[in-house]
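B., you asked whether I could sanity-check this one before it goes into the benchmark set. Here's the sequence:
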Amino acid sequence: MTQKISGAPMYDGAPFYSKTNSDGFIDLRGPITCMKRLKLELGNRQYYCDEDYNIFLDENDISGEDTYDKKVHLVGILKTALAILQAMTNNIDYLMTIDTEFGNRSEAYSALQKKISDLRRSIKDAQDAQNKKKNDITFLFKD
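And here's what the prediction gave me:
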């Protein structure tokens, strides 16, 4: 059961909603947009401005203002985050101004490559999960 709370404060431009869970507690988090979910995937680090993020999202047929639905948007959000991190490999010096924990360019590049590798694995896992739901036949062995 979801109800709009009249006179409630706004959350990123959207009103808060009241949702009662099975334990009877009220969840006051508002609906999450695809832009917000992308930023969460990127660790809330502002690698680019929101207009640039929208360009990356558009490349995966996602609007930043859409309400996030995991079944529909997860793979596209992960692919968008991957494209953003791949673009950051062209500007390691800028990355080092955002992520200040790196001592040198080599450490920053290695960490970025690890994030890219992790995202590729997450994309593959999400795609496999979607395909598994679509197919009733599964293989006994998988390489």
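One thing to flag: The radius of gyration is 19 Å. Otherwise nothing jumped out at me.
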